[in-house]
Prior knowledge:
- The chain is built from 10 helices and 11 strands.
- The chain is an alpha/beta fold.
- The strands form 2 sheets. It has a 6-stranded mixed beta sheet.
- Helix 3 (about 70-75) packs parallel to helix 4 (about 90-100).
Amino acid sequence: MKKIIFIALLISYLFVSCGSQNTAQNNTNTENKEILVLAAASLTDVLTELANNYKTETGITVTFSFASSGALQSQIEAGSPADIFFSAAQKQMDALQEKDLIDTDTRKDLLENKVVLISPSNSTLNIKSFTDITNSNVAKVGLGEPKSVPVGQYSEEILSNLSILDAAKQKAVYGSDVRNVLSWVETGEVDCGIVYATDAQIAKNINIIAEAPEGTHKKVIYPIAIIKSSVNKEEAKKFIDYISTDKSIEAFKKYGFTVIQ
């Protein structure tokens, strides 16, 4: 009888021990997992919020490198390790696709944004439209650097279609990304600047003067895709799926993005 009880206790101990080891191993695996996302600077606030929620729900850390889409494109082309690219324009994603550097099966258009002209809230320059950039009392205009910053590319397209690009260039101060331009307007270092509507929404001490006239620029579409060299493709896909859920869509909307469905 004692022998039977001993065997039963031994089996019970082994079962609990193995279960504890498996649980510990699973927790360790989750804790060790980390996804690296290269994302446009305009996505900083919303993606940071979603990543915090994701870690709370899954235990998986999502790390970001926020910069202009052009700078991030260059990093990927140079072989920098990363799992996901989230661009503020099709141009940079197209370039990576042409070089076979993204997993095209995972590429999708997720968000849309708008372009707006803003000024410091204490401005007395009476700027009421994009064409007022050419007024003699406007000395400095904050623009994204057009070679690598999508908002700079959209800005040049708008100004060109309004036939004021050459005049605007003479006053231009070029930023390394859209948040750079936004900060100049907030601090009054420039008389006005062109940014995304979502950046203007979270800014302090600025006036939104006008939205870019319809038809003056390509749609501001944000594509996302898994980078082909990623070593965490499965986890990367799960995160993309997560930020495509109804709950995450509400977060994007809260920050002013239009979600493409």
